[in-house]
Design brief:
- This protein has no helices and 18 strands.
- By secondary structure, the chain is mostly beta strands.
- It has two domains: 14-138, Hypothetical Protein Tm1070, Chain: A; 141-258, TM1070-like (Hypothetical Protein Tm1070, Chain: A), CATH 2.60.290.11.
- Strands 1, 2, 3, 6, 7 and 9 form a six-stranded antiparallel sheet that branches. Strands 4, 5, 8 and 10 form a four-stranded antiparallel sheet that branches.
- It starts with 13 loop residues before the first strand and ends with a strand.
Length: 261
Amino acid sequence: MRHLCVLSVVMCAVVLTAGTVSGQEYERVLLPVVTNSSPGAFGSLWSTFLAVYNGSDSTGVIEYPFGCVIGTCPRGLPIGAHETSVLTTIGPPPAGIPGLLVYVLQPQNARFAFETRVQDLSRQALTWGTELPAIHESAARTDTLQLLDIPLDVRFRRLLRVYDLDARLASVVRVRILPMTSDVSLAELDLVMTPYLMEPFTDRPFYPGYASLADFTQLPGVAGMDRVRIEIRPVTSGLRFWAFVSVTNNETQHVTTITPQ
């Protein structure tokens, strides 16, 4: 992981549009950061803990690419009623895409809870990590999104991450960086989200489209600012997206996540 690939704990459940698989309903869940013992800046070593709880009275199945090459493996993991499973043997996502999409084949009235925690193993005695709130389908954005109070202090490094939850080809969002107290843009640019091109295009991709922006301070007009807000709006028609900023301390590697509220 380089720069801010350090998102700590991510409690990431972005539930997308329900669909059907062999007559069963399913929900799509975005895990924004999945990594396995990946080295990062300043000697950090990042690893992800993933768990899912089935709160229903029937067995459910979660599908994800585990322990094998994409397209060659069984992907169904049964989770019994009122049981918690730890998702293991998840290899790192394709280069440049930190997140993962999983699918829950859900029995009637199923209730699934997800927990994703990315921890700096080099400092595991000091921190349990950081998490993102669970983001269900209603939180997948189709309109303008705001991220507030982002510090530009040199003691921290920042990473904006944007996800296309349908993993379409070359989806675009427009990013505006603004002062905290003004609506006059300091900088404005388009980000193109890239899907995993080795995975056949399907209505059930395992990897989201993704784009990132690391160093805001290098953009013209931003230098000298103390804090900023970021506004993101979809350019591609029908886009369903989500975004957040991770802010990581260069000394402690503690991560703060700034999410849309």
